[in-house]
Amino acid sequence: MADWARFPIGQPLAPGQAHFGTDGIRGRVGELITPLLALQLGYWSGQVFGAGGPVVIGRDSRASGPMLVAALAAGLTAAGREVFDLGLCPTPAVPGAIRRLGASGGLMVSASHNPPGDNGIKAFGACGAKLAKAQQAAIEAGLQGSGAQVPQQLAGDGRWYERADLLADYRQSLLDSVQGARLDGVKLVLDLCWGSATSCGEELFRQLGAELTVLHGSPDGSRINQACGSTHLEPLRAAVLERGAAMGFAFDGDADRMLAVDGKGRVVDGDQVLYLWGQELMARDRLPQNRIVATVMSNLGFERAWQRRGGLLERTAVGDQYVYAAMEEHGAALGGEQSGHILAADYGMSGDGLLTALQVATLVARQGGSLADWMDESFSAYPQKLVNVTVADKLRRTSWARCQPLQEAVLAAEAAMAGSGRVLVRASGTEPLLRVMVEAAHQADVDHWCAHLATLADQHLNAA
């Protein structure tokens, strides 16, 4: 047996080096995200995950992905775990495999919509949901040296297997979700973002007969999310209009979210998807209490339009794990985020951009109209603006509400809009940013208050 005493498994990292944010641990490769962190996180995940089946790992296309997967697998196998490595895949393929295999947990190596130099690690429990807070805390305790005592010898004979073959089940589940619907001859544009969606996105839509134009369609971690995908819709919009396509779909780096463009070039965000899909489920009596779960970022126009239809909108904090928890609590069938994470109870409750795109495309096709027709009948969104203010100091960023001038300005803005608008200020859970969002019935109010609040935040939270 190897002399593990000289190998740094189970040894504490620097204090405060790694914490789970709203979507795992994420940061700059070589700074926060290192092979040593991945090694330790793999080991402590192996200690914390329940007994039973294997641990599933997937990754997006970033150049640092294989290195981090290897380090995670080393830590997991050192903890005696059996590892199934899916390779390049969308994030939802990991929880899907966990559920199908009865696995004990899973890890996804991805920084989602972040730039190529970042990476991250998302953790999933045995049910396929994001890892519970108590388990996250136990892993963090191990990373910081305050966890359970490290065993003197390996817990078992760990093994690491390459199991890309398991992705066939994921792809088939997506095809099965449309229940035989076809897209024969429908002109579509896909922006695969150089990322995880390249693993099967084009194949799925071609199998349904769609006439495709594919943008950024090969895995290239050096260009992932760069002027493409769901955070940069300009290329998709231009291609849809140029080719006369019926609609287009753009994905983020790990394909767990999707935004669309209709045939007129209008953006179809997560709120629009929830509103349109929610109506279809309501008509089929498949939406308990006519409830949709969304986050505090969802548009007021969406909320009020849904209420006028007799629906109930339940709001949560930002993050699909909070949407998931509220859906579980209330028995809701549909929920999601404005950014394009959509969760459907009928399909495993995992945010899946490819699933959402397939559902939107086939629902439109079944109704015999177009996505533009859907949008013509949708709600009118209130003007909304989001400004990101870089605040490097985490304590200042997360405790922004203690900044009296900023807090007073927020109250003044809300009073001035007198119920016709709202302000949301929150610290990002994945980046060193304070997000300032203003939404109002009038664009002038949005522009004024958003600029004013962002300026105050920069002045006071970044003061020397």
Note the topology.
Elements: E1 25-28, H1 35-48, E2 55-59, H2 65-78, E3 82-88, H3 93-101, E4 105-109, E5 118-124, H4 133-143, E6 159-162, H5 167-177, E7 187-191, H6 201-207, E8 211-215, H7 234-243, E9 247-251, E10 258-262, E11 267-268, H8 270-283, E12 291-295, H9 300-308, E13 312-316, H10 320-330, E14 334-336, E15 342-344, H11 353-367, H12 371-376, E16 384-390, H13 394-398, H14 404-417, E17 421-427, E18 433-440, H15 443-461
Parallel strand pairs: 2-3, 2-4, 3-6, 7-8, 7-9, 12-13, 12-14
Antiparallel strand pairs: 1-5, 4-5, 9-10, 10-11, 14-15, 16-18, 17-18
Verbal overview:
The chain has 464 residues and is an alpha/beta fold. It has 3 domains: 4-169, 3-Layer(aba) Sandwich (Alpha-D-Glucose-1,6-Bisphosphate, Chain A, domain 3), CATH 3.40.120.10; 178-376, 3-Layer(aba) Sandwich (Alpha-D-Glucose-1,6-Bisphosphate, Chain A, domain 3), CATH 3.40.120; 384-461, TATA-Binding Protein (2-Layer Sandwich). Helix content is 36%, strand content 20%. It contains 15 helices and 18 strands. It has a 6-stranded mixed sheet with strand order 1-5-4-2-3-6, with helices on both faces. α1 (35-48) packs across α2. The longest helix is centred in the C-terminal third of the chain and has 19 residues, at 443-461. Mean pLDDT is 92; it is low at 1-7 and 150-154.
| Average residue pLDDT | 92
The residue ranges in which pLDDT falls below 50 over 5 or more consecutive positions are 1-7, 150-154
Q: How many β-strands, per DSSP?
A: 18
CATH superfamily of the largest domain, by name, is Alpha-D-Glucose-1,6-Bisphosphate, subunit A, domain 3
| Class derived from helix and strand content | alpha/beta
Q: Which CATH top level class of the largest domain fits?
A: Alpha Beta
Question: Regarding quaternary structure, how should these chains be classified?
Answer: single chain
Beta fraction: 15-25%
